[in-house]
Amino acid sequence: MASVEVAGAPYPGLRQSHHHMTLPAIMAAEDASKPASQLQTSRLLEQLMLIARASALEEMASGFAHELNQPIGAIATFAQAAERMLTRAEPMTAAAVDVLKHISSEALNAGQGIRRIRKIFNDGTVERSVCALPDILTELMPVLKLLATRAGARLDVAIDDSLPLISVDRLRIQHVLYTLVQNSLEVRRPAGQEPHVRIEATGDRYAVTLAVIDNGIGLTSEARAQLFRPFFTTKEHGTGLGLASSRAIVEAHEGAIGCDDINGGGARFWFRLPATTDKPSAEHS
User: Fold this and answer.
1) Which strands form 207-214's sheet, in the order they lie side by side?
2) Which of 121, 241, 248, 259 could form a disulfide linkage to 58, CB 3.0–4.6 angstroms apart?
3) Which residues contact 161 (CB under 8 A, 6 or more apart)?
4) φ/ψ of residue 221, rounded to 5
5) Domain residue ranges in the chain
6) Looking at the whole model, is its pTM more than 0.85?
7) Which has the closest alpha carbon to 275: 178, 164, 170?
8) CATH, domain 129-274, list 3.30.565.10, 3.50.50.60, 3.30.70.3400, 3.40.30.10
9) For the residues 157-180, what does the mean pLDDT come to?
């Protein structure tokens, strides 16, 4: 297993005057003086942010569907029941029946509208290419180094020497890894403990697994049960959409995602993707 340690030293090209700027501001400020490799990192980060926003909107639509479909269905059911009662022995006026029919129709239309919105953000398609997980990780490493530097954290990477190929949407899988690492850098830790995040890539002939391990205080049983639900967050200013969108991406790749406790504190977030026997394209070979 190959292992690399990335200390919290300043990232090349990150000026001292930028230490209190946000990542987008850093990237914009440094573009003029960046060499090609760092400019590529900046563009990759920009792409990841776009993916993050699109995925968040997808999960927001999914969350609204989950929250609204049930009450809307109940409105339709009760309205139809009222219609039947009002058309029995002692019916009310025809106008009242028409109103109830209108309520029923509009409630059903609202449910159809929600499904249409969800379809816009999630058409079920994934643009895949055959590639190696270490290549995906290597491409993302400059961005992850920058995140670790900004957090004053140590970042370790360990990759199995021989991993099978996978068929994935590279940028979406990088978004999942980016989200897990960012979350791990932001977890609460015991007082005085320096942040440390470890990335591990393992696998066999059937699948590859990528894990992100932190040294935080761990998760409560309540939080663990809701981690991947839309809008659930343990952060003060979190949206509760990062892990939910990550789950949607992984499951769209026929994979699985989860979280385990670490003995002595901390958490291990992981996702597993099936291996492929297809050959890589010329672009990524």
Assistant:
1) 2-6, 154-159, 196-203, 207-214, 267-274, 256-261
2) 121
3) 1, 2
4) -65, -35
5) 44-121, 129-274
6) no
7) 164
8) 3.30.565.10
9) 92
